[in-house]
Design brief:
The structure is a single chain. The chain has about 300 residues and is α/β, with parallel strands linked by helices. It is about 40% helix and about 15% strand. The protein has a 9-stranded parallel β-sheet with strand order 2-1-9-8-7-6-5-4-3. Helix 6 packs parallel to helix 7. It is globular and about 45 Å long. Bound molecules: 3-hydroxy-3-methylglutaryl-coenzyme A and magnesium ion. Magnesium ion (MG) binds near residues 176, 178, 206 and 239. Magnesium ion binds near residues 15, 176, 206, 239 and 248. Keywords: Lyase, Metal-binding.
Length: about 300
Amino acid sequence: PLPHAVNIVEVGPRDGLQNEPGNIDTNVKLELIGRLVDAGLRQVEATAFVSPRWVPQMADHTQVMAGLPNRPGVRFPVLTPNLKGFENAVAAGAREVAVFAAASEAFSRKNINCSIAESLERFEPVLAQAQEQGILVRGYLSCTLGCPYEGDIAPEAVARVARRLYDMGCCQISLGDTVGTGTPLKAQRMVETVAEQVPLADLAAHFHDTYGQALANLFAVLKLGISTVDCSVGGLGGCPYARGASGNVATEEVVYMLHGMGVETGVDLRALVDTAHWIHRQLDRPMQSRVARAMGE
Ligand code: HMG
Ligand code: MG
């Protein structure tokens, strides 16, 4: 059985843009966010309070927060790798944040410059402060279906870190196929194993489409009961620390698939596709998303 409705978490403005080489004007980012909200997205990851030396594209985080539309019911989570990022995010007005860990030691080092255990220690004070201030914290877990440096990752290793993040107070664990190498039965097994430790209702799928498997993988885990899906408009993005990682699965491809199966998303597909074309014109890059290409401008 499929869920009757799916929550889409739009990560394009963060995961999509963090990897772009050129400078992107803050106003372009804000217009993108505004268009996404107008298209019906209710959770839009707006930016990341990470080190500007590590990810220069997110250096304008404070200006992005200051320019966000004030729309009731719309949530704008941001990434925070440590207490410094958390404090800056809250000072800038964030009411919802996300910490990010990895299921692979090597990826943890490349991405956040510390071991998995050290990263969890760094998140403790973030979770404690967040709880005090009534701020929701999402927990991302990278490399759940494979690592660019270590290859295969055991589902049990994923489940172990997912459980730690959840016990620490993360309200939802987003399972990332960072390199997009997963296939449907592997995705199914991974989610089944994690679901023994964390309730399915509190899991999200964050799949990248590098190998063209993302929709198939999503279908496999939706059938298990996953009802939150992260995606990126136009399939923008990748990860600076996962070589060859193309974008997250395109939001319009996910919405097209879900609507075709009678699953509600609250998203206006036409407006979303228009937004995908708009941002691609701004970035001057070819459209990867097949749904956006097929539906045209
Ligand atoms: P570090 O260099 O080990 O940190 O970086 P440090 O604590 O030693 O500090 C070094 C300097 O950075 C200091 O400044 C700190 O103040 C500063 P200095 O004294 O040298 O002038 N600093 C900060 N500045 C701004 N904001 C902060 C911050 N923290 C320290 N929050 C750190 C460690 C975690 C900061 C760094 O590695 C980092 O920022 N990494 C970010 C990596 C990133 O953004 N990756 C992409 C997002 S994750 C992703 O895409 C995966 C996901 O989509 C899921 C999936 O697909 O799998 C979520
Ligand atoms: Mg990602």
